[in-house]
Design goal:
single chain, alpha/beta, 44% helix, 16% strand
């Protein structure tokens, strides 16, 4: 069933965020040469070459498609294998992923500063080690603390170690739990919620269900930060055939439509320059205004 789109306000690129970009010539070369080769080349041969080359990114996706380890590898960019250097430094998707991280942390830091109450409580759902939240806390002097929720014990331990190195350990709580169990752990409502990197892996009804459940843990008017994913990266067939990574592509209006059903309004859409991700801020509607 088609998702009903809702209206939103589109924002321009933020000059305060250092994005990764691709020249027009390079985009054309990728579209005409690289993408057909990787999308329609023999998948078995490609997987064999990646195994032979000991690709850490490929191994991480084979173990957990789109999981936190592949995200960390894309963020770090310190790969020793030739295949990984090509995939991570030249691939549109890893570049867009890093753009999303920078844009998301920037927006969350600004939302923390705009919150009237203090200290601000930021809730991060399915955030793996909470890298985006840690970057956001490091960007602002406003009093804030975060709760990072994920199902992976390994991701949370990685996050704890990172937070300790960055001097953020006292400001971040890591919880291994499902969204449906969060009420057992949270003792106050969230001022800001981050749900980046989730919608592209969830069917429509699950997005509505998760967002609706989290809505009950938020203050009226509190912002939720999430994202859409477009096919502009040009390599969906490669990810599905070679990595086993199946992502759901939706327009900003479609994702906003799902969030509207869950009780959110006033959507502001922030693009990153590669056109792959749009980071979206929606506000929790008061109960009386919910459809």
């Amino acid at each position: 069933m088609a998702v009903e789109e809702v209206s939103y306000e589109i924002r321009g690129l933020s000059a305060e965020v250092e994005f990764e970009t691709v020249s027009s010539l390079r985009r054309a070369l990728k579209r005409l040469l690289v993408h057909p080769l990787v999308n329609y080349g023999p998948a078995g041969l490609t997987r064999a070459l990646l195994r032979f080359g000991k690709s850490e990114l490929a191994a991480a996706n084979w173990a957990d498609p789109g999981g936190w380890e592949s995200m960390v590898i894309s963020y770090r960019q310190n790969c020793s294998q030739v295949a990984d250097r090509l995939l991570i430094h030249a691939g549109t998707m890893p570049m867009a992923l890093r753009n999303r991280k920078r844009l998301g942390s920037f927006l969350i830091a600004r939302l923390i500063e705009q919150a009237r109450a203090g200290p601000v409580h930021v809730l991060c759902l399915g955030g793996g080690p909470g890298w985006v939240i840690q970057d956001a806390l490091a960007q602002t002097r406003a009093p804030a603390r975060a709760t990072v929720v994920d199902l992976s014990a390994e991701a949370l331990e990685f996050g704890r170690q990172m937070a300790a190195r960055r001097g953020l350990a006292e400001r971040i709580r890591f919880i291994q739990a499902n969204v449906s169990d969060l009420h057992q752990y949270l003792h106050d409502q969230a001022n800001v919620v981050k749900m980046l990197g989730l919608c592209e892996y969830l069917p429509d009804e699950q997005i509505v269900s998760v967002a609706g459940a989290v809505r009950e843990m938020m203050l009226d008017g509190a912002p939720m930060v999430f994202n859409s994913l477009s096919r502009a990266h040009g390599t969906d067939r490669f990810f599905r055939r070679v990595f086993g990574l199946h992502m759901i592509h939706r327009s900003p209006g479609e994702v906003c439509g799902l969030m509207h059903r869950a009780g959110f309004r006033d959507f502001a859409v922030h693009p990153e320059p590669l056109g792959v991700y749009h980071v979206i801020v929606g506000r929790r509607a008061a109960d009386a205004g919910r459809d």
